[in-house]
Amino acid sequence: MKKKIIIYGFSLALLAFALKTIEHNLLTRDVSNRGYITIIAVLFVIMGVWLGRKLSIPKIFSFSKFRMNVQAAYFLEINREELEILALVAEGLTNKEIATKLLISKKAVKDTLTQVYEKLDVEKKQQAIEKAKVLSLIY
């Protein structure tokens, strides 16, 4: 967390330095305020989009001991619930235990696993676990 704060602080300081440099250059060349305001607006939009993307990475609360690769799951169109259930299956839990842990029905677990099998193009739990590890969905 401290590393992120330092990086963001350094980025903002660098942006402030760049703005002061631009301000100095613009004042010495006597450019209109419109150009200066446009440059500032563009820089802050770029910085805002960058920070927004960095801070909006989905945080996943996991019941599993396995770590989950959200980016790989997104690429394979596997949602958070499917990934969580897959990780719990990899731990060796039964459908009933998974349902109890996630507070959902056993049928919901079975249906979700069927969707995961289709997306991973496998037929059995063990094949799904192996393929998920090969594709780095869980590790």
Largest sheet: none
How many β strands by DSSP? Answer: 0
**Between the first and last Cα atoms, what is the distance in angstroms?**
23 Å
What proportion of the residues form beta strands (DSSP E)?
A: under 5%
CATH architecture of the largest domain: Orthogonal Bundle
| Strand-pairing-aware structural class | mainly alpha
Query: Per the principal axes of the C-alpha atoms, what is the gross shape?
Result: elongated
Number of domains: 2
Helix proportion = over 70%
Provide a count of the helices: 7
Question: Topology as H/E string?
Answer: HHHHHHH
> What is the rounded Rg?
24 Å
Q: What is the CATH superfamily classification of the largest domain?
A: Winged helix-like DNA-binding domain superfamily/Winged helix DNA-binding domain
Can you walk me through this structure?
With 139 residues, this protein is an all-alpha fold. It folds into 2 domains: 2-55; 70-134, Winged helix-like DNA-binding domain superfamily/Winged helix DNA-binding domain (Arc Repressor Mutant, subunit A, Orthogonal Bundle). The protein has 7 helices and no strands. Helix 5 (95-102) packs across helix 6 and helix 6 crosses helix 7.
